[in-house]
Amino acid sequence: MLWSELGPAQMCFLALSNERTTYRVSDQLLLDPIQTQTPVYPSSTSDFQNNFAIQTTIYQNPYSNLSFQIVDHDLRMSSNQKNRNFQIEAFKHKVVVDPMYADKTWRLLEHAINEIYNQNASGLSFEELYRNAYNMVLHKYGEKLYTGLVTTMTSHLVTMSRRIENAHREMFLEELNNNWADQNKALQMIRDILMYMDRSYVPSSRKTPVHELGLNLWRDNVIHLTGIQTRLQNTLLQLIHKERTGQVINQGLMRNIIKMLTDLGPSVYQVEFERPFLEASGDFYRIESQEFIECCDCGDYLQRAERRLNEEIDRVSHYLNPKSEVKITNVVETEMIANHMTRLVHMEDSGLVNMIVDDKYEDLRRIYNLFHRIPNGLSTIRDVMTSYLRETGMQLVSDPEKLKDPVEFVQSLLNKKDKYDRIISLAFNNDKSFQNALNSSFEFFINRNPRSPEFISLFVDCKLRKDLKGVGEEDVEAVLDKVMMMFRYLQEKDVFERYYKQHLAKRLLSGKDGSDDAERSLVLKLKTECGYQFTSKLEGMFTDMKTSRDTNDRFHLNHGADLGDRPSLVVQVLTTGSWPTQPSATCNLPTELMTICDRFRSYYLGTHSGRRLSWQTNMGTADLKASFGKGQRHELTVSTYQMCVLMLFNETDRLTYKELEQATEIPSLDLKRCLQSMACVKGKNVLKKEPMSKDIGDEDVFFVNEKFTSKFFKVKIGTVVAQKETEPEKHETRQRVEEDRKPQIEAAIVRIMKARRVLDHNNVISEVIKQLHARFLANPGEIKKRIESLIERDFLERDGSDRKLYQYVA
């Protein structure tokens, strides 16, 4: 226990150093809180015997009626002596206390407080003042001390409030700030003097601590004074209004005043400043936003709104309470953005759609950042963007001009995708919700055109044939990634697979694949996306090409000497299941070629037992040496059908269409395409026709163009092939696709029923659609037909009591 905490009826022992000592507990030591020593209590009787001697000491407290007497005892006893008891006896006479002690002491303290408020505290003895306050509390005069403090402080604060109230208009805040600083300084000194009262009397009496008391008195006698309260609010709001209109104000003074209100308590700050501040701000921005939106376009309006928002955030950081930032920004967002949100995004000639069309990334970034702060703000932007994207996308996929060129059609889709990807990346912070909306929109309108799978395959065909020749590996991968992006949007991926297989076959067989690595890379990407089953046949086509090269090498190694000067033959042996071969009509090959074809057939069947070969003349090519008038010689690269036609002109000069058809037995449609490419294409017209027109008629006459010339020795004559399928071809392809889907649907149904055993009709439909979604969008009507077929073949059966319930038959 410390000396400063001892009462008048307490006694302690001081540690001594092995000598007989008499210590008198003096009044001075008892009353002086500065001279503190740690008491030492004896732990046993032997401690008393060895270390202490106690003599009768009389202590008389001048401020109490009690006095004590310690009876002298010598505690240094030998070991055979008995312990002697000691006792404390009351004084025999009564001590008289000064009845004016409390009043005198308070007058001293009151004078000191007045001097502090009058800024004359330099001559005060704070040690003496502390001791006086301490003694008043110690002798139960805490209430008098506390009440006197309240009265004295209130008196000075009333005086301060008059000075503040009488301050000149421009000096009002300065006067308030100066007096607040004086109050804080005085309050700090008073609290130091009354520290003991703050620590003992205030908690036990449930009074307000001195510092908090000073703040409350300042609040009640200064801030809540009618003449100051209203004036303070108006002055602060006027200064903020001036700053908003571009004038310079004293931010340091504002910061001090706002901090004063904050120190007085959250409720004071909110009631006296924050609420009227937010109301005034709402009115200000409501009027300003209406003025702006009437005279500005969307981009300018958003710039001003963003600037105002940043100004308010800076204002909070400079002198407002940090907790006000959310509230004031909400006011700006509501008045300047939320209340005009719909009008802004649909603003004529400058709204969101115009920003997208004109690639205004800065404006788009600004509208995203501002609307992001508003509930449902981003959904508003997203809905407008999605609506516009779907509208323009539908126009694109149904534009007759775009549909004439499949490559341009797909390129337009890719350009649109790149445009929106840049917007989402540069302006919309790669927001996942916008990316999902973009993907959903593309999937929506791409699948509205049933020819999209065919067109995407034709786009790939064009790129891999010629556009990617000589292009770097990274650029090739970028193009292939874009193709895969379009592929993912397709719901009928199996239709794309059929067209892609046809186009890949033509590229491989004609040697027009620009890059074998690019071809294999795309097949690998398709395999990763859709699985092994999707690309197994495509990979088989590459395997056949390699096997065919080995077969041709062995054939020429064994029979090369026997062929002599006959035409050289390169045969590609294709596996029927892997290639999109079709039963082709027999074509009458030239005699020179039939001999070597028969020789190869005999060799192949001799080395591979159990196999059959059928010539696919519609898929072959030939190189011919041709002589024209004036000694013009050229080497023509043509299709097998074109070769058959040209070889007939070695025997006759003129042939009609009917004669060519009978002699070659080439299908009519293919024959017309061959003749068109050789007679109607400028620069490739090795034949002439009468009458001259682009269409081929049954009575047209064809003959060799003796005047044909070309600056190239090797002339490549391609077949006029419609990039898009004709209606009959399209119908035929669709039928083949539907036939290929049937076993896939049946397999899915059996897998589901085998796992579930019993399932109702609707769940079967939904499960099948879900399983086949990666390849195509299954038609519920077709699924129902496949279920009926499986029931007929005893894979499934209907439940006896519920016909909509199916059971798996093991």
From TrEMBL:
Ubl conjugation is among the record's keywords: yes
UniProt entry tagged with the keyword Transport: no
Q: What is this protein called?
A: Cullin family profile domain-containing protein
What PANTHER family does the record tag this protein with?
Answer: CULLIN
Any single GO BP term = ubiquitin-dependent protein catabolic process
Looking at the record, the residues that make up the Cullin family profile domain are 451-679
Checking InterPro entries in the record gives: Cullin, Cullin-like_AB, Cullin_homology, Cullin_homology_sf, Cullin_N, Cullin_neddylation_domain, Cullin_repeat-like_dom_sf, WH-like_DNA-bd_sf
* Family affiliation: Belongs to the cullin family.
Q: Which UniProt keywords apply?
A: Isopeptide bond, Ubl conjugation, Ubl conjugation pathway
Organism the protein comes from = Deinandra increscens subsp. villosa
GO: which molecular function terms?
ubiquitin protein ligase binding
Q: What start and end residues bound the annotated signal peptide?
A: none
